[in-house]
Design goal:
8 helices; single chain; Four Helix Bundle (Hemerythrin (Met), subunit A); two-stranded antiparallel ribbon
């Protein structure tokens, strides 16, 4: 397996798991999604918002369009808005990466922000996006348990691999 396939699988997994979470959380009440719990962010919905906002931030650097607008993304606060924004960003990110060459993936992108300066490859930033989302999705499961939501979907990478392989078999 080469780097391109590995990173494509990584963003495809991210897109799959984002959709699993949104499908799961779409069945929950606004009250539960907005119930305050001690965590990095005070509610499940605010944690999802943070995952989306962070994906948007990194997307703007990876795509080298630098169009991230913190103020604009901060005004997106409704459940459906956040769900749609996160779905759209995950799909956009996946489709973008699927069209990159390996040379594109190893290209360094320099970032000078108010928080840090770095100069890493696109694939390293992509790994960061997915790992960051995974970290916070784990928090969402724990937050959910604290408010009575106990039916989280199984979203380990291995389950995506099984899903992916079953999709290929079904088409073949």
């Amino acid at each position: 397996m080469n780097l391109k396939i590995l990173i494509i699988h990584t963003v495809q997994y991210n897109n799959w798991v984002v959709n699993k979470y949104i499908d799961w959380l779409s069945t929950k009440s606004d009250e539960l999604l907005n119930k305050e719990v001690i965590s990095s962010f005070p509610t499940i919905l605010k944690t999802l918002h943070h995952i989306w906002q962070t994906q948007e931030y990194w997307w703007s650097h990876i795509a080298e369009n630098n169009d991230f607008d913190f103020a604009s993304t901060s005004t997106t606060t409704g459940k459906e808005e956040i769900f749609n924004a996160l779905r759209n960003n995950s799909r956009k990110l996946m489709e973008y990466v699927e069209n990159l060459s390996e040379e594109d993936l190893i290209k360094n992108v320099k970032i000078d922000s108010q928080w840090f300066q770095c100069d890493f490859s696109k694939y390293e930033y992509l790994q960061h996006i997915v790992l960051h989302g995974t970290y916070h999705r784990g928090q969402i499961v724990t937050m959910g348990r604290n408010v009575g939501i106990t039916d989280a979907p199984m979203t380990d990478y291995n389950f995506w691999n099984i899903y992916k392989d079953s999709e290929v078999s079904a088409k073949g």
